[in-house]
Amino acid sequence: MTSAHILGFPRIGAHRELKFAQEAYWHGEVTESTLRDTGSDLRARHWALQQQAGLDYVSVGDFAWYDQVLTTLALFGALPARFGFSGADLSLADYFVAARGNAQHHAMEMTKWFDTNYHYLVPEWTAETRFDGGVDWLFDELAEAQALGHAAKVTLIGPLSLLYLGKVKNGLAHPLDLLHKLLPAYQKVLARLQQAGVEWLQIDEPILALDLDAQWLKAFLPAYTALATSAPKLLLATYFEAVQDRAALLHSLPVAAVHLDLVRAPQQLECLLANWPQERILSAGVIDGRNIWRADLSALLAQLQGAHQQLGARLWIASSCSLLHVPVDLANETALDQESKNWLAFASQKLAEIVALKQALNGNGAAVAEQFKAADLAVQSRRNSSRIHNPAVKKRLASIAEQDAQRHSVFAERILKQQQRFQLPLFPTTSIGSFPQTKAIRQARAAYKRGQFGHLAYLDAMRAEIRLVVERQEQLGIDVLVHGEPERNDMVEYFGEQLWGYGFTLNGWVQSYGSRCVKPPFIYGDVYRPEAMTVAWSQYAQSLTDKPMKGMLTGPVTMLQWAFVRDDQPRATTALQIALALRDEVADLEKAGIGMIQIDEPAFREGLPLKRKDWASYLDWAVRAFKLSSAGVNDDTQIHTHMCYAEFNDILPWIAAMDADVITIETSRSDMELLDGFGDFAYPNDIGPGVYDIHSPRVPRVSEMQRLLQKARSVIPDKRLWVNPDCGLKTRDWPETAAALENMVRAAKLLRAAVAEEREHIDCC
Ligand code: GLN
Ligand code: ZN
């Protein structure tokens, strides 16, 4: 009989119980034992859901007090030595210090988990790193599940992925140099799990789906040969991309089962099945762990027939990856209309989908006939709904021409006209868009949303804020102003709420890191802008000043990237639809007299596919979407863009191809090192490298910013260089913001004076 399982369940709880318990504990409001009770309750509840849905195993080991990678380090006693914590006696308080830092220790670095929006804590590997054994949390959780009568499948990050995800520090040449120490530690854990009666261990090696050097690939066979000796049966899990080019390696490994992500890479099934080893189980990840659409059960059943014929009971049904990346339960979406609710499935609903497929494959089709029928109807409804399909949008998209994504003139000509129009000084100063979102602003917005604040009163409050922000910028002597974005809760939500085709949930929370959760909107239909979204605000702000006021928009790639996207058309199509909506907004801003328009793309880089071979096609449509949104303007309208938190160097040609007149980027935390690439590549247009880090309340000194600007000058020609902070200021308070900007303007002015003097010197000598 075919079995059913998932690769992991979201741990935060349907109402973010874990988040609230963590934060209450951090603030000293509840004791550690209350926090631990919340954890146990959540685990018990999630296991019960899995068991009641009819899965054959519940997932143990997917829980973490902060992060799954940190928890794995805790299991092996391998937290960075700089904290000085003991392995086996690590307390929960210590664990949180590693995750969040304190007065003595800076926190471990955090980075994105593959191409998801989940962030893990980065292991720090040194020549001294030891894996002498750590806490028993995993074994305790296993005992909990067993005491509740569950069949537990334990999940653990595999040794090679764990090493790969870490950063090498002092003295160690390569992470693989630690493998000989790490493997015995895994062996011990695996043997203990086996003794505890665990039948299956899911061992995750997501790096198998990346471009890997030969030395990593070569390490798998000996490592897994060592692990397989006294261990539960191993289910090697791959996900997020295809592994078909690793077929020979996969087939050679001594594991009892292999999991494939057949949502992201369905094409790999046929190829891998061709030489599928005798006896080996295939776990088919067919229910999407990365998106919120209800599955087309009939289509999936048809897709699985061949594999089922070949493998019989050796075919298992699963989620494509851990369900960590989707919200917990659709039942809590009380405000969604029936039609769109019927199109969706969150983690809890996905359990039932997996089981329905298993039942159908096991010949119990009758028992799940209703479920299949309901899924068929949902599929039909999505195919036909007029809320999804807007012929006007499709027609417009089909008729876009090459020149629609091209400015009239090249940058060298445009910039002359722009200089003529704006008369900016050398090293113009500006900011990234948002100003401190005070409590009063947030309260006014929330009251307005709840209907407790009339439209005019709200307008008045926001206008008062805009006036204040404009006044302050003028007093500070900033050259290019912004309106401060007080009317925006979030840079995607603000636009999504005004566009057709975007849907929002009440409780669709997904863990981003630690206790932080995000609630991405979902794009269900053709995106269409019924009316202007920002023009009134920008126009009002511009009316208050003679200085240029930047219009402020979120770019098409970011609007796509930070949402759950349609699975019924390519991402590129959706991005281009959003681009067209933004193009109209840009045109309206221009008509309203706004001469500078910034289109933010902070998520541009994170959309990059995991495999390099797929980069060009992504970058092609991503650049095209940006250009389509921005290129419709006159030469003397200045297009800005902004990007942050990323390594840009390997995609510089594409950033240049976006052809924004000005790009502002985050560079201060890397001490301008990020900028070197821009110099080597000879980036052609204007650049504003951030001169101070907005993530900290610290007020940078004038001299620090002067130093950074001098560094920037060694790479960027003076006439191309802007002066601005790293990112928006909405999380800051006013006193530090005003002080930092004052210093920033001062640094720019000093630099102007110094350059004037240098020039005089050159002229006279
Ligand atoms: N304009 C936005 C702001 O200033 C940009 C935010 C971002 O880059 N994430 O807040
Ligand atoms: Zn930013």
What does this 3D model show about the protein?
The protein is of the alpha/beta class and 765 residues long. The protein has a domain at 402-437 and 475-764: Alpha-Beta Barrel (TIM Barrel). It has an eight-stranded parallel β-sheet. Helix 11 (297-311) crosses helix 13 (347-361) and helix 22 runs parallel beside helix 23 (615-630). The longest helix has 31 residues, at 734-764. The relative contact order is 0.08. The mean pLDDT is 96. The structure holds glutamine and zinc ion (ZN). Residues 432-434, 491, 552, 600, 602, 642, 644, 727-728, 730 line the site of glutamine (GLN). Glutamine binds at residues 432-434, 491, 552, 600, 602, 642, 644, 727-728, 730.
Helix content: 40-55%
Distance between the termini: 90 Å
What name does the CATH topology of the domain at 402-437 and 475-764 carry?
TIM Barrel
Indicate the overall shape: globular
Mean pLDDT, to the nearest integer, reads 96
Summed up, the helix count is 27
Q: What is the beta-strand fraction?
A: 5-15%
- List unreliable stretches of 5+ residues: none
Gyration radius, rounded: 27 Å
Give me the secondary-structure category.
alpha/beta
* Largest sheet entry: 8 strands, parallel
Write out the strand line-up for the largest beta sheet, numbering strands in chain order: 1-12-11-10-9-8-6-2
Architecture (CATH level 2) name of the domain at 402-437 and 475-764? Alpha-Beta Barrel
**Number of β-strand runs:** 21
What small molecules accompany the polymer chains? glutamine, zinc ion
The CATH C-level class name of the domain at 402-437 and 475-764: Alpha Beta
